[in-house]
Structure formats: C-alpha cells, structure tokens
Amino acid sequence: MLIFAMFKLLPDPARMTMGQRPDVASIEAIRKAQHLDEPVYKQILFYLNDISVFSIHDDTPENQEEYGYSKLFAAGGSAYVIKTPYLGRSMQNRKRVTEIIREAVPTTAILGFTAMGIATFIGIFFGIIAALNQFNFWDNAILSSTVLGISQPSYFSGVVLGLIFGYWLSDWTGLSNTGALFEMVGLSDELSFNPKNLILPAIALGIRPIAIIVQLTRSSMLDVMSQDYIRTARAKGLSKWKVIFKHGLRNALNPVVTTISGWFASVLAGSFFIEIIFDCKGLGFQTVMALNNFDLPVIMGTVLFVATVFVTVNILVDLTYGLLDPRVSYGK
Predict the structure, then answer these.
(1) CB 191 within 8 A of CB 185
(2) Of 222, 80, 75, 77, whose CA–CA distance to 143 is shortest?
C-alpha cells in the first residue's frame, strides 16, 4: 500500500512509462488498463480485488482467460470467483507479472541460498573456533576480521571482488565480473546454468552475514559452555568434541537460526544491488529495471512476492526452534 501511495505522487505514471514522446492513444490505453482514469480509492479496490483469492469480476470469456478463475456463482453480469492472485501485466511489454517473477526467481533463489549456505557454514565454523580459543590469537584474529566484514555493504564487496577477481585477475581465476547464472546455449532457446558466474556474487552477498554469524555463534557458545549441564557432561567423562557438538552447539544454535532467518531477508534486499553489479537477471534486476521505467505492476508484484517469502521463512524458523532446543514448546 505504501508503494502504491508513493506512485500516486507521480504526475502521470502512464506518461512517464511511455518515455519522451508518448502518443495519446497509448497513454489512454495504459490508463484504462491500470484503472488510472479512476479515483484513487477505486484504483486501490481494483488492485485488492485482483490480488485476492476470492474476488468479483465481470463474467466474460476475456476476463476468464485473463484471470484464469474458477466461477463459484454468478449474479447479474458479475461472477464471484476463486483464483490465484492476479498481479497484472507489465506496462512496458504487456507480459504477465507472474511470468516475469517466475523467470527471475530461480536466479535470485540460487544466489540467496548459496550466499546464506556459505555464510552459515563458514560463520558457525569460525564462531566455534573463536569460542574454543577465547582471548588468544585465533579469537582476536577472527573477531578483527568480522569487524571488517560487518563494515562492508554488499554492493561495495561486489564492486571490489568483481574488479579484483573478475577483471584484474580474470586470466588466473577464470571468473567474470558480469554474467547471468543461466545463459543461452548456442543459437537454441535452451538455458544452461553457469556455476562460475555464481561464485563472486554469492561471496559478495555472504560476507556481512558471515561476520554476524561468527560473532553470534561465538557469544552463544561461550554462554552455553559455561552452563551447569556442560560441566556435568564433562564430569561424566564424555569426550571434548561430543560435549561441544552434541550438548553445546545444538543449544547454542537458536539465536544463530534467528539471525540466519533475519539475514536471509537482508540477503534478498542486498541481491538487488548485487544482481545489477554482476548483471544477474534475477528478481532484484527486474525490480530495478521496473523502477527505472516506472512500471508499477512489476514493482508491486515483486514487493508482494518478497514480503510473502519473508513471512514464510520466519514462520518456518519459529517452527524449527522446538527441534533444535527441547526446552522450547508450542502453545496448545
């Protein structure tokens, strides 16, 4: 709703979408298709009706084909229907927003999950090392490195990594500072996944989460390892590594999992910049292009999709707490 309101501050979204020399007929067609010729409150109601699962539409073959609904019952010339949320069509190429999102999501998902996978593995590993070597050389070196990692925004890391390893040292690394994750194979329409183009953007996107996870794992491990049940486990003669991984790490993971879920949202936001820097044609790239073209349906659709992902991830993380920590129970 906030983005919808922000675009209402523009003098004429339809005219701005058409560029420098728009023709009157095209502008009027866009205004009618996007209900821009209606009062603002009606535009909001039209949009909410489109994205609702249960909605009301004129009962015509054209509408049934466009919205892909199943009719519940008809009343007069209207139909009460059930459908998947309809996000509209792009103002630029009249392509369905759902199709644009479906084509872009694999790139962003691969990039985000790879970055968080790298960050989680490296972060927990070095966090444990720092906790087991508190106040000595390794602890100080790791903590100093995390300060450097936290201070670098992902777009800065992306520019530096792309310049060094994708340009200056590209002959040795074999990497490029630009390139889509899915590339065309020859003259065919087939897309082939190129893992080389994933390395630099994933590392650039994962640097800040690595630093956060290292610090949180270290802090949580130090707190857990000072608990009475850890001393009891040691007194029973359990091996050092069994105490650390079975009794210590499992109970220390709850705050780490919370952080990972929160940073997953930040990683998706950071991917918007990374995808532009490395020319990855993902959801962030499409959103930025839509912003440049004032393509409101695409912007609204991507925002709704990302918001849904955030909510879903946080719910799943809450449900995993009980698996990680037996002390956590769910209300009945």
Answers:
(1) yes
(2) 222
Tokens 């007194």 map to which residue? 235
> Which domain-ending residue is among 49, 82, 115?
82
Q: Which domain, by its residues, includes 6? A: 2-82
Q: How does pLDDT run across 44-68, given as a tens digit for each residue?
A: 888 889 999 999 988 888 888 888 8
Radius of gyration of the chain (CA): 25
Token readout for 175 is: 């990497």
Quick one: 296 exposed, middle or buried, by C-beta within 10 A (0-12, 13-18, 19+)? Answer: buried
Coil/strand/helix, residue 10: coil
293 and 193 within one domain: yes
Q: Which two tokens stand for residue 171?
A: 């002959």
Nearest to 282 by CA among 102, 98, 91: 102
Measured in whole angstroms, the distance separating CA 245 from the mean position of its chain's CA atoms is: 31
Q: Are 72 and 81 in contact (CB under 8 A)?
A: yes
Residue type, 52: S
Predicted structure pTM score: 0.82
Domain co-membership, 248 together with 298: yes
| E-only strand ranges, the chain | 54-58, 70-75, 78-82, 182-184, 191-193
Residues 209 and 261 in one domain: yes
